[in-house]
Every structure is written in C-alpha cells, then in structure tokens.
Please model this.
Amino acid sequence: MAEKTKRSGKAKPNSAGPKPSEGEVRKAVRERYGALALTPSSCCGSKTETMCGCAEIYPKAEIISLPSEAVAVSAGCGNPTAIANLKPGMTVVDLGSGGGIDCFLSARKVGPKGKVYGIDATPEMIHRARRTAEENGYDNVEFRLGEIEHMPLDDHVADVVISNCVINLSPDKEQVFKEAFRVLRPGGKLAVSDIVLLKDLPVEVAKDLRAWSECVSGAVSEKEYIGAMRKAGFCDIKVQERAIYTHEQLSDYLKDTDMGGISKIAGMDLANLVASYKISAAKAKK
Ligand SMILES: C[S@@+](CC[C@H](N)C(=O)[O-])C[C@H]1O[C@@H](n2cnc3c(N)ncnc32)[C@H](O)[C@@H]1O
Model:
C-alpha cells in the first residue's frame, strides 16, 4: 500500500522514489504533444489519445462547424467554453491551446470585434494551430508560443481565461494561476476543464512520466487545485461538474504508457481515482 504523499504543485520525491523532475516533465509533455501535432489521425475515432473524447465532449453541431485540422488533435477533457459565458467583443486567453479547438469555438462566440489568444509551449502545436487559423480565415485568433507559467501577454488583457486539460500537466500550478490572474482584467472570469485527483494514485502511476504527459500523474487534489486558485487571488470559485473516470476509462488512457506497456496496470483498481472537473472563478472588480 502506498504511503500517503502530500502533493504540491512542484514535482517532488515520494515514498517510492523520485517523481519526475520539472525539466523531465516539460520535455516529456513537449515531445508528447509535438508528436500529436504532427499526427493527422482523429482523436475522435480513438479514445487512446490522452484524456480526449471530443465526440462526447462537444455538441455535434459545434464539432462539425470547426476546422477538422483542429478537431483531429483535440486533447481536452471537457468543454470550458460551455461555462465561460463568452459574449461578442470579449478578449479570451486559452492556456495550452493545442490544435486550437477551444480558440476556434471562442472566436465564433466573441465575433470579429473580439480577440482570442492561444498560448502553448509546444512549437509543433503552435505551427499547426496558426496554419489552421490562416487556412480557415480566423482573423481574430492569435497563437503565441510560450509557457503558461510565464505568458507572453500584457497585464489585464483578458475578459476570460479558459483552459482545457492543461493545468494538470504543469509542474508549477500555483504559478499558472498567478499568471491567469495577472492577464485577466478586474472583474474577469476563469473557466477551466481539468483532471483532478480523487485519491492517491498507485505509486507506479504517480511516478510514470508518460502517465504525467497523458494528463494523469500531474493531477492534484481538489483541495490543492482550489487552494492554488485562491492563493493567486481568485474568488467566487465554483466546481460546476465532476465526471469520475471508471477503471476502464483510466486503464484505456494508461495502456500506452511505459507501465501500461509492460502490463503493470493489469492488477490495479483504477476506478474513482481521477475526475474531469469544470471549475469557474472570478477576479474581483476591485
Ligand atoms: C492535453 S493537451 C490539450 C490541448 C487543448 N487544450 C485541447 O483541448 O485540445 C495539452 C496542451 O497543453 C500544452 N502545454 C502543456 N503544458 C504546458 C505549459 N506549461 N505551458 C504551455 N503549454 C503547455 C501542450 O503542449 C498541449 O498542446
């Protein structure tokens, strides 16, 4: 039985040996999503692509209206635009925009007078998303290469910050929320979908680098996640949805990781360990 480990935003050792270092995590995540960006296959046809299942996540009418190049590499675990209450003219920032699916959805909602910035640390994803925007005439969307812990954006530019299955991947979640708070204008809103830990993961999963880049082992508890939001200054924090993963769902995601590849997960009970959350929060007006 794994000893209970107190998890924090930073990668740190646990009882079963060292967890991946911050540098290892960032490199593994960039490689994982760099490879995805170069793959034309559709995640909607295969649940083995990260926590994704975009056919189940977005209304069909929204999916078919979007560029297929973005849908094909969608890797989210929810739909933050569903709780973002976007209006024409707003400025939106998407943390970890990937192929741009939520940026393109937001772009429709904010219209030509609005603006959407997608931030991503993987150059291949940024290139793909920029090409998709250009080829499909999305003039109000701009993709910028950078880490969400140090965003290439001025203070107070955004009315709304969204993010879909990304903050769990960061080795420094407190810094991500601080940055989200910095780029939001007073009175602005945060709307995220993300993976949250319900119980300690089996040690083999917790220290597996591929499981981190598959959006599992970087996840932290609801208390820690919301604590990091609060510490950054957010108020009015509301968990809008918790969708708990079954054993079958989680083992499907993990089966292509190092540990899945050598069947270490075969005897594990992976039910009720993680959930996909939708959380909203606000930056006070003053
Ligand atoms: C699971 S994918 C989700 C992509 C997109 N949000 C979606 O729903 O399709 C995670 C994305 O976040 C990016 N990412 C991960 N960690 C990041 C960080 N610290 N800074 C910026 N981007 C990051 C990855 O490059 C990848 O494109």
Summary: Residues 29, 33, 50, 74-76, 96-99, 101-102, 119-122, 125, 147-149, 164-166, 169-170, 215 surround S-adenosylmethionine (CB under 6 Å). Strands lie at 91-95, 115-120, 141-145, 158-164, 184-197, 235-244, 274-282. Residues 134 and 155 are 27 Å apart (CA to CA). The chain has twelve helices and seven strands.
